[in-house]
Amino acid sequence: MQQDILINWSPQETRVAVVEHGVVQELHVERSVECGWVGNIYLGRVARVLPGMQSAFVDIGLERTAFLHVADLLRPELPDEGPAERDEAVEPIEKRIFQGQSLLVQVIKDPLGSKGARLSTQISLAGRMLVCLPQSSRIGVSRKIGSAERDTLRARMQALLQADGGQDLRGFILRTNAEGASDADLQRDVDYLRRTWAHVLQASRDAAAPALLHRGPVLLQRVLRDLVTEQTASVQIDSAEQFAALQAFAASYMPGAVAHLARYRGERPIFDLYGIDDEINRALGRQVDLKSGGYLVIDQTEALTTIDVNTGGFVGRRNFDETVFKTNLEAAQAIARQLRLRNLGGIVVVDFIGMTQAEHQDAVLAELRKRVAMDRVKTYVGEFSPLGLVEMTRKRTRESLAQALCSPCSQCRGTGRVRSTRSTAYEILREILREARQFDPREFRVLAAPEVVEMLMDEEGQYLAGLQDFIGKPISLRAETDVGPDQYDIVLL
């Protein structure tokens, strides 16, 4: 699968699009004032320990305190211990940390919604081919690498570390990029990670909590580290300055990626090549149209994302079952793409159109699993429930595209709905009656949206007149163009 990576850079914002066979599959956005926190290492101060939740809140210098669960606390390794022994050996959090204590922590999840960042004291430093676990002594290998190759890589890594004498940095996980790597490539990663960890340790000795000790790689560096694969044909960037910086970074740490880099010099903006801006606008919409005429409806909440599949204008050519099956099959392909494109994470519930034949359900599930297997982010797809729903989980570490680019509507305050004009008008009438029973002003003046004022004067005029007679006070209306349709104010004069 041929892949092109397009990078649009400006001093305020970096935007990255991953295009496969001419179709946008992933979008990444990072702003200079809103850089992500995942991977950052801090010297934090424990603000509060909650034994009932087996967790703690840690001040790392952000707007909200970060969350640390007991499962994410580092503890000494025991030789040859298995999962059962590890679970039994976990001590309560109140016996391991205390309020006011300084802790070396790393952000593993960005702040999302009303939740603060999630932390771990199990530090990891990612390189191109290796992940360094400086507090561990184990060498692991990615499960995506074949079993025979895993054993060979582990042995090579152990031999390399012994020859290098790097006992101060012993814990590593070999990533999928390490498959086929030379010893020189691995050594280069080890040297880079050793320098990084030494810097973190020195900074922790000199700093006072809370303090940032190490910032994770910026988006441009993560593009080379995580997105460039054997299928990548080109990495094009429209900034001469950042192109030179990427070349220098790749030459030092990822020589194989240098050949993929290209400076975009076209007159048209780079995102115009594949209609990326139009794709971003579509990805922020609630409805996704399918080629057959069906469509998806995607609703994202803080806790989960729901995806509803509809046949729409697709009527099929044979029978109803065949129409439903084809719509669901096309929807499975589109859902996998939308998860990547919108960076949807957490729990995802898909409501496919009901299918009566078990083989149709199996085929739709197989297609969905096949498509999500192409996703770099860990994704789990469950079975059909008795209600015809499919539950999925997708690892979430950063904001979704909508969360990164949008903010709650000032009119509906994020609910997606506002009170109707008539409902607001009736609420105003009730509020005037309530105020009249408590106060004795000369006049009541209503400030509301023009459409609300018009309704009170026209359709509800007789009720307004009746209310004036009942309370014995005049009621005046004034339209305000800068207020929402469900917002109003009653002034007592």
What's the short story on this structure?
The chain is an alpha+beta fold and 493 residues long. The chain contains 12 helices and 24 strands. Helix content is 32%, strand content 26%.
List keywords for this structure.
493 residues, alpha+beta, Nucleotidyltransferase, domain 5, 4 domains, 6-stranded mixed β-sheet, 5-stranded mixed β-sheet, 12 helices
Describe the structure.
The chain has 493 residues and is an alpha+beta fold. It folds into four domains: 3-35 and 218-276, Nucleotidyltransferase, domain 5 (2-Layer Sandwich); 41-78 and 91-214, Nucleic acid-binding proteins (OB fold (Dihydrolipoamide Acetyltransferase, E2P)); 285-405, no CATH class; 421-492, 3-Layer(aba) Sandwich (Hypothetical Protein Ychn, Chain: A), CATH 3.40.1260.20. Helix content is 32%, strand content 26%. The chain has helices at 83-88, 147-164, 183-206, 219-227, 240-253, 276-283, 320-342, 358-372, 401-405, 421-438, 450-457, 461-471; strands at 3-9, 13-20, 23-31, 41-50, 55-59, 66-69, 102-109, 118-120, 125-126, 130-133, 139-141, 171-174, 211-214, 232-237, 261-263, 287-289, 295-300, 304-310, 346-351, 379-384, 389-394, 444-448, 475-479, 488-492. The strands form five sheets. It has a six-stranded mixed sheet with strand order 16-17-18-19-21-20, covered by helices on one side. The chain has a five-stranded mixed sheet with strand order 3-2-1-14-15, with helices on both faces. It has a five-stranded mixed barrel with strand order 4-5-6-8-7. Strand 14, helix 5 and strand 15 form a beta-alpha-beta unit. Helix 10 packs across helix 11 (450-457). The longest helix is centred in the middle third of the chain and has 24 residues, at 183-206. It starts with a strand and ends with a strand. Residues 82-87 have low confidence and may be disordered.
